[in-house]
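Notes from the 1:1 (GR / supervisor)

We went over the backlog. Supervisor wanted to see one worked example end to end before approving the batch request, so GR pasted a single chain during the call. The sequence is below; no edits were made to it. Supervisor asked that the structure be written out right there so they could see what the output format looks like.
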Amino acid sequence: MNHTTDIKNIYNLDGKVPVAKAVPFGLQHILAMFVANIAPIFIVAGACGLSEKDTAMLIQNAMIIAGIGTLVQLFPLWKVGSGLPIVMGISFTFVSVCCYIGATYGYGAIMGAVLIGGFVEGLLGLFGKYWLKLIQPIVAASVVTAIGFSLLSVGASSFGGGSGSEQFGSYENWILGGITLLVCILFSIFAKGYLKQLSVLAGLIVGYIVAVCMGQVDFTSLQGTAVVSLPRLFPFHMEFNANAIISITLIFLVSATETIGDTSALAQTGLGREVTAKETKGSLACDGFVSSLSSVFGCLPITSFSQNIGLVAMTKVVNRYVIATGAGIMILAGIFPIFGAVLATLPDAVLGGCTIMMFGTIVISGLQMIGNCGFTQRNITIAALSLSVGIGFTQVPEIFAYFPQIVQTVFAENCVAVVFIVAIILNLVLPKDMEAHHE
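Structure output shown during the call:
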């Protein structure tokens, strides 16, 4: 009886779950976001010309700050944190603007801008009553849909072997991605009871074993890895550049909208209810203030991970203590670099096989949110125009060629930012009543 109760508690926000039963579900969340958490570090460090040693140190710190941020979301400190099962990680939203700023002004300018921009978003969360009024449900729903669409190419890129891979699209990657996806589907069909919810973990394990057998896993990165290593604080000298601060603070506003959408999507898909204003403000405050803390560790901004929102939507596992075991695993991965180094050998194609379906789930969640807003003429106009301009224009980034460089950096390839701006403007200017009135 107790065993049954323990298992049922994984579907309750505050139910007690023994550690042994919580770990597999917590680990599934970490495996789902691990590569996505460290990928922005790889990309920006490369653009800034950082050494391999510095990059490895930043990856270690990224795991620790992701774990800390997740714990703050799960168990709020004062008004900071939502109390919802939200997993935090290094944000992809900032990658393009950070690559530009880092290459132009240096990595220290990114850190100074993140420190200030995060503080701005944190205050926005604490005193965000008017901001929340600006972000009407149809705006948040459009942004969530855009997040889902923007991640589809990330999932497809992973499936093919990872962007820039010499063997991108090879038969080996197709086989690995296909087997992983097939295992996820078969496991969710044939597994009994709560084991169905471990389909992503099963896919990753089987895919990884197949990859090892195929010789697709490179273990050379494990050589010389320290067993235990504590994080370095302020590893880079912070610089405060006005252009960098303005650019990154603007992206923080976009990220805030993603967070509002993510928090709303999680409450609806995971808990079957509307999100509260207190939860949304706490989630925003956590995003902002922990991002400022992230800069102290030398890392990029941190945000709620859409991958894990998709995982919750699929599994309905919402227990805070279960997700907390995952946060603990992330912190351990940072303190014991060998643990993170082993996880980092997970081939992109295996990850892509698991994430492609989860990202699609986010698109559907956004469409469900649009449906819940109601298909009034006003809502249809906001959603249709923001998504068509946001997704359409950013697929043809040359359309921004005559705009200033900063506009190109922020908007040219960031469909979420464009959808956000267009939806906000339309929400402000369109009349409240647009329905056709028949005589």
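Supervisor's comment: Residues 2-429 form one domain.
Batch request approved.
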